[in-house]
Amino acid sequence: MWKGKADLGAIAALGCAALLACACRERQRTEPPQVRVEAASGTRDETGPELVADAPLPAGTALRDKILGVNAHVIVLKYSVDFSEYRSVIDQVRGVAGVAAVAPFTLGPMTLAARRGTAEVIVKGVDPELMPAVLDLPKHIVEGSLAGLRLPGAQPPHTLALGDAGTGAHPCDGATAATQVPGVVLGRTLARRLGLGIGACAELTDHDEQFRLGPATTLPFRVIALFDVGFDEYDSKLAYVDLRAWQALAGRGDSVTGVELRVEYVERAGEIAQRIRTALGDGPYKTLDWRELNPGLFGPDPAASAPPPGAVSAAP
């Protein structure tokens, strides 16, 4: 879904959320997607603009908790642009031992426009009913609520009937806005930069023509909540919308970027990811746990390199 290597530098500090989209950009290749992440160290990536961190990254568990606060423990991607069978994959992985919750998601770069200006953001589409069991996003809401994220009666993929082009009235105006305009959840830093508060209207545009089934689309969204993770690379660049609204905006049908999971024991995510690979067999899927998505921050899973029980190491 990404337009090219130039996008990598701009999103390198977003952690695993942005890197999911990088992996999806590799879907059409025969080799597995190479997922790469670098800490927001204030350095410049050769493929993108300079990234400046507001403060040093916290270490160890604190950093892990910030990253996992808005991201899943394990994700499943597909080596294809079309991931329309995601419901059957959810059914398969839901029964894997150690899996606590599963939800589909979409992810991609879009342009967010408001009266004060525009911003290039990473927009994640989530299922409002399933997402709260997988992500900690609801815990980080500081204003508003997730109520209204999905329009009443929305179906995948749905067509949004927004506003009346003949009257010039903005679809966010009027008492019916809550039932006509889908909600968007913004990082508090991003919202402040664009002058957006609860109830304000903004527009999202998907410019990715490579995977679209039609022309570029711009749709209005109503700000229903603000989140603050305490990690600027999330709070200033991420936006959440309903999965179905994302599908309508992106024009790619009832397909998703991947499936994300919460596991019962986060430190055993690597082991559970391996069980998922086994459950999915030789299908066109790539399963990654949170350590694999952030190798530069956390390194490999210690359990993956540990010798089997009873093994005898040679003396140095």
List the defining traits of the structure above.
316 residues, alpha+beta, six-stranded mixed β-barrel, 12 helices, 10 strands, globular, disordered N terminus, disordered C terminus
What does this structure look like?
26% of the residues lie in helices and 23% in strands. It has a domain at 75-287. By secondary structure, the protein is an alpha+beta fold. It is globular and about 50 Å long. Strand 2 (99-114) and strand 3 (117-126) form a beta hairpin. A 6-stranded mixed beta barrel has the order 2-3-8-5-7-6, surrounded by 4 helices.
Provide a quick synopsis of the model.
By secondary structure, the chain is of the alpha+beta class. It has helices at residues 6-11, 16-25, 60-69, 86-94, 177-180, 188-194, 232-235, 243-250, 269-280, 290-293, 295-298, 302-305, and strands spanning 74-78, 99-114, 117-126, 141-144, 183-187, 201-206, 217-227, 238-242, 258-263, 285-289. The chain has a domain at 75-287.
Contiguous uncertain segments of 5+ residues: 1-59, 158-169, 305-316
**Counting H and I runs of at least 4 residues, what is the number of helices?**
12
Radius of gyration: 20 Å
Q: Give the beta-strand count.
A: 10
Break the fold down into its secondary structure elements and pairings.
Elements: H1 6-11, H2 16-25, H3 60-69, E1 74-78, H4 86-94, E2 99-114, E3 117-126, E4 141-144, H5 177-180, E5 183-187, H6 188-194, E6 201-206, E7 217-227, H7 232-235, E8 238-242, H8 243-250, E9 258-263, H9 269-280, E10 285-289, H10 290-293, H11 295-298, H12 302-305
Parallel strand pairs: 3-8, 5-7
Antiparallel strand pairs: 1-9, 1-10, 2-3, 2-6, 2-9, 4-7, 5-8, 6-7
